[in-house]
Amino acid sequence: MPEILESSESQIDFIPKNLPQEPQQLLIVDDDPTILNLLAEFLSRLGHQYRTAGDGLEAMSLLEQSPSTIVITDFMMPRMDGMELIQKIKKLWPETDVIAITGYVRDFNYTDVIKSGACDFIRKPFSLDELEAKLNRIIRERGYRALLKQLSIKDVLTDLYNRRFLDNKLKEEAQRATRQNYSLFLIILDLDNFKELNDTLGHQAGDQVLRRLAKVVSNSIRRNVDIPFRYGGDEFAVMIPQAGTEQVNQIAERIRSNYLNEDIGKTSLSIGISRFRRTNKGLRKDIDDFIRKADDSMYAAKKAGGNKVIFHEEIKKE
Fold first, then answer.
1. Catalytic site residue 234?
2. What is the pLDDT of residue 6?
3. Which end of the chain is more exposed for a tag (fewer CB within 10 A), N or C?
């Protein structure tokens, strides 16, 4: 992720002008083999990965196998023309950008093409310089959109995902866990004695502790499986799919002990765990209960003196 300057209030100071270029997956669609080969050679020279299709139906088949980030398509083609292809792409893959190319300016104008969902329009005959300029603009704009999306779901102070993204991921993962019949757990953890540390050493020191805790959490969970979040204030959360009760307890204990090894004053962690359960109350209510049980368990750990892990099912047994 591009560097973001931070102040003690965790404000974003700038968005970089030169974003790193993400690799693009292009699809060229044209029923004229000469144009198709010309565009393929041109994109290859620019270093882009690409596939080719002879008409809209073949393009749809390729996109269903693996979506492309950018499609360059002719308009007048057999079986499925460019207008219909663009409309289908924007319905099924709204994040895909489309450049339309046509020599039939009397049949299609710029406004029609843009309304159909294309992001740009080139008239034949065209220069490769014009296509490269339009392609570079689209890639640059995709980079800015990706950055803005990251900023909307990331906590600036810790670089973990934020509460908004947690709500979205819980819904998505709860549906998948139900459909595929696997367990889903949620850990909520809170810093013990954090207010005292903040009051004594100041908010900047407190921010440093939160960053260190974020690193501890990220380094204590299963990479590319479990997802850490900053839940709010000095509370953090971890979504743990496809794990057993013993495994999730081990992860929670590893977070707790690894944080203690940081030896940050009198601070420690109170950790609560809950397991997702489907009921007849509806998905939203089940997710709310899922979060509440993890939260209740965390507060039970805090009431018991802190520096503890409590699994909600253990509370029910008492």
1. yes
2. 34
3. C
